[in-house]
């Protein structure tokens, strides 16, 4: 079975002049382009719970599976993020099947921490996945796999999101990272980067530092992946998304 390829709504970031993505307005277009998955971003939600319910209904009508991306950390100073329950509730409102966070300041599981997290994972039918960020302390393969090892000891079903571009920011070879993390990865963010005069910048699918086709081949086809980079300005966005989606599916 071919890999499921989704679309993170970050792709539409520069479609309008104010860089605001009206996510509920693009769901039909995303489905018509052939995507089975849409990854909704919390920072693009403009009208709170009302909009979340609308997105859930429209995504259901379109036959789209919803993933939920939250720009927040699972742990703060060793404790669970105080907003974590809210994030799970929002994912439920969206009828999302997955919730993505970054790791944060993980200092190990106590019995109390593990139980609190287990209660949320049991109460909500949402899979939790943790993404590598752009810091060595919180986003390195060693840090993430140490977390996964502890989560498994505590019988917590948590996966990893492998962001293909973020490893470059911490001077880590993404191919080495893939080999070290592959067995725990349940989702992939497709994002390429390049070197520029002012540092590392986002790039096109095949114009960056990472051989994306070869990197994706290191993961089983059962692991879904989503396009997660701005795809141009104005009407160029749709054209780029379609072209890149076709390219990825041809690999």
From TrEMBL:
Entries under SUPFAM superfamilies matching the protein: Xylose isomerase-like
Coiled-coil region list: none
UniProt name for this protein: Xylose isomerase-like TIM barrel domain-containing protein
Organism field: Trichococcus pasteurii
